[in-house]
Amino acid sequence: MFVFVCAGCGAELTTPLSQVALPVHAHQSYGNGVQLPVLMRAGTFAVDPEPWGGPWRMWDEIEPGEAEARGIHAPVRALSDAVPGAVVIAPGDVRGTRLIPEKRGGSCCGLDGADGPNMACEACDSPVATRVDDCSLWQAVRLGSDAVHRVPVDGIHPTPLSWAELAETGEVTPLYEPIATWGGQSGTSHYWSWSPRWEAAAGHALAHLLVASQGRPVKVPDGVATDVFQRALDALLPAAAPKRRAVLAGPQLPSPGADVDILLVPVHPRTGRTWTPAGPAASAYPVPLPLGVWLSLVSPPPCLPVPASGRMPRDELRDDPLPLLPCRPFRVDRPTFERTLVRLPAARSPWLRTILENVGHGTSADLVQTVGP
User: Fold this and answer.
1) SS3 letters for the chain?
2) N or C: which terminal CB in the chain sees fewer CB atoms within 10 Å?
3) Is the pLDDT of residue 304 over 50?
4) Which pairing describes strands 332-333 and 368-369: parallel, antiparallel, or unpaired?
5) How confident is the model at residue 151 (pLDDT cuts 50, 70, 90)?
6) Taking the CA of residue 166 as centre, how many other CA atoms within 13 Å lie in the half-sphere pointing to its CB?
């Protein structure tokens, strides 16, 4: 457990926090006028290893070799020149700070951090953090890595759960959920949509699936994985045989065989480590998925029950009223897909560069999206 203190005066700026992995949707922007919830769970923090926010440099301003030294292997629109290593926490875990009114940024419904740090230490008035809560952005506070220090504190030090414990107690990420929008002329409204967390996780995984495909077609498991990945894979990859086979793998699942090429595996939510198999499947390409998303694939929600006569059994799902469903097919989050793929060394391959260019120019627009419906 740690408390973060001001690097200038030593004043405490947070409650005691334990470290977890940075969520895969941390950089996601979703929809237009959408109210996204808090990014981090209360009592936790994550470190973002990459720069976030301005100042920015366009791609043609980047020196040769500089991008690759930063882990970028294909052209991007711009690179951030901010200080890397920000500590990301929930807004409710902040203490001893005040907002800087003149640092509102170009926000629409809240704060977007475009003008740099917008929170100051109450004790010494030094800029220490950036609060983000504008529409379509996940709500968070980013403590500047050069503005704070972490200090260990006494207390309970939680031990990361084992893979078996995570498989038993982990929370499933729902495939679709109600989305709230900021009030306009008609007031605050809601609509039923695919989960933003799912779309970001799918964008991250799709980039890995393309790399694992080696340019050949891929067959994913039947069920939810087919709905989420297969349409995009079939459109982006050739239809020639033989297909590379992807299967679900992880704790409490049967060991995959040696004939499997790709594994859809969970990522530990606290350590950020990807589950790895033993035995013949150890050489298969692991495609990382957030634990809640992976659990949804392993134990998908039940289908609607078959109509029955007589009294409704206690464990059956009601079909009155009918469940609300998204009004469009699933589409992966395009910025997350692109952000992930350009950071994989395989993105230097000409065929993957072509896919990136086609997606960036709007090709396959029905498969990847920039904003929500």
Assistant:
1) CEEEEECCCCCECECCEEECCCCCCCCCECCCCEECCECCCCCEEEEECCCCCCCEEEHHHCCCCHHHHCCCCCCCCEEECCCCCEEEECHHHECCEEECHHHCCCCCCCCCCCCCCCEEECCCCCEEEEEECCCCECEEEEECCCCEEEEECCCCCCCCCCHHHHHHHCCCCCCEEEEEEEEECCEEEEEEEECHHHHHHHHHHHHHHHHHHCCCCEECCCCHHHHHHHHHHHHHCCCCCCCEEEEECCCCCCCCCCCCCEEEEEECCCCCCECCCCHHHHHCEEEEEEHHHHHHHHCCCCCCCCCCCCCCCCCCCCCCCCCCCCCCCCCEEHHHHHHHHCCCHHHHCHHHHHHHHHHHCCCCCCCEECCCC
2) C
3) no
4) parallel
5) very high
6) 25
